[in-house]
Specification:
Strand content: 25-35%
Shape: globular
Helix content: 25-40%
Mean pLDDT: 84
Radius of gyration: 27 Å
Number of strands: 13
Largest sheet: 9 strands, mixed
Length: about 425
């Protein structure tokens, strides 16, 4: 009985201390959501006319003639800021403010600067509320900026603790600002449409996971380069994934074709599989369309004549989706065997060409160098050591690609 009373007294004392602490401290660092300028998306472009752009800048971060500005050229930054109470709360809803159109849910504002930090400082001078990057979902960079280098961009966002590592960074064909002004009918908030396009691409097996955190991790590795989605905005405000924009260090050096994304996914063995291709069995009329449903990949490495040699064993399961001519009897086991052989032969050349293309650019975005580091550590520590040396060695590496195709289903109609 005495023990019970003692515990009751202890609990009462703790409750009183908690209440007292809340009164004394309070929410000293609180910041209401209405007092924040919530940035949803950012676009970064180069500036063609630097002199005219300098006139737009009010000399916030430097004074002409006293503190010299960076000599790398200026950038143009556009941001999408969410309007409080206007973001839709669910399907068919328009939010507290009643506006349902894109023009009423976000505010697009543009600034220039000598660096990304400089541009955001100029932007803060024009916005009354504090900029908040905790809900930043999409960063769109123009191709020109990507080819010049992302050193400053990566440095700024990696240092900012508010930026989520699950956000998307992408390279745009043409001007990146167009993506901030797009108004796709399927989504009232443009940045959410961009984000869902890539997220659904992952679920359908059409794009690998490549969030901004994964990209930064790959860029930091000694035996792998980074890549970003290469996108283009179409006439109907829809977004097309044009390929992979791959890098050497912080500089973009090339872009794959859309179908070559499937080659990367196959070499890495990433599932699910979701691409369709035509397989020609004889004449152009004797063709069938197949879709990949599952991939597997096993990569082995050996050192031959002082150079890494990779053996890539790829297995893909297929479904027959359709045929061009009625002359093809796909319920015939010999025809199914022919489909597997023909597509296997085409795939070997297709995958080999993709790897060769990356070798010519010196961009190992597949991560073969990381396999050498893990399995041939003595060779790496003696011959390679650095990312720059691996970029040179990667051009000399040899590859042997083996592909095994297996048709699993032909649909509900056998003829």
């Amino acid at each position: 009985m005495q023990t019970t009373r003692m515990w009751i007294k202890i609990v009462r004392v703790l409750c009183m201390l908690t209440i007292a602490a809340s009164f004394l401290s309070g929410c000293w660092d609180r910041l209401e959501i209405e007092e924040r300028a919530v940035v949803l998306g950012v676009s970064i472009d180069t500036v063609a006319n630097t002199e005219k752009a300098e006139e737009q800048e009010d000399e916030i971060s430097h004074l002409h003639g006293t503190i010299p500005a960076p000599s790398k050229g200026m950038i143009r930054v556009a941001v999408q800021i969410a309007l409080p109470g206007r973001i839709p709360l669910g399907p068919g809803e328009t939010g507290g403010g009643g506006g349902g159109s894109v023009g009423k849910t976000v505010w697009v504002i543009e600034v220039v600067g000598h660096s990304l930090n400089d541009a955001f400082m100029n932007l803060q001078q024009q916005v009354s509320s504090k900029l908040f990057f905790g809900h930043l979902r999409v960063i769109v960079i123009s191709e020109d900026v990507a080819r010049k280098g992302l050193e400053n961009i990566n440095d700024y966002f990696r240092r900012n603790s508010e930026v989520r590592r699950m956000a998307w960074m992408m390279v745009a064909k043409g001007k990146a600002r167009k993506f901030m002004e797009a108004s796709p009918p399927l989504e009232r908030v443009p940045t959410l449409y961009l984000m869902s396009t890539l997220d659904e691409g992952i679920r359908m097996g059409k794009f690998p996971k490549d969030y901004i955190g994964i990209f930064w991790s790959n860029v930091s590795k000694k035996g792998q380069e980074g890549f970003l989605p290469f996108v283009e905005i179409k006439k109907e405000q829809n977004v097309e994934i044009k390929g992979l924009a791959y890098f050497v260090g912080d500089h973009m050096v090339g872009v794959t074709k859309p179908l070559e994304i499937a080659g990367y996914l196959a070499v890495k063995g990433i599932n699910p599989a979701g691409y369709r291709v035509f397989v020609q069995l004889g004449s152009p009329e004797q063709s069938v369309m197949t879709t990949a449903t599952h991939r597997r990949s096993k990569i082995k490495v050996q050192i031959k004549d002082g150079v890494p040699h990779f053996t890539i064993d790829i297995g893909i399961e297929l479904n027959v989706e359709g045929k061009v001519s009625n002359d093809i009897q796909i319920n015939n086991p010999d025809i199914l065997k022919l489909i597997e052989e023909k597509q296997g032969e085409d795939a070997v050349k297709f995958y080999s060409d993709i790897i060769k293309q990356s070798q010519e650019k010196g961009s190992d975005y597949f991560g073969f160098g990381e396999i050498v580091r893990a399995r041939k550590s003595q060779y790496w520590n003696k011959r390679i050591k650095t990312a720059e040396e691996w970029s040179k060695m990667y051009k000399q590496c040899t590859f042997e690609v083996k592909v095994a195709m297996k048709v699993r289903r032909i649909g509900m109609k056998g003829v």
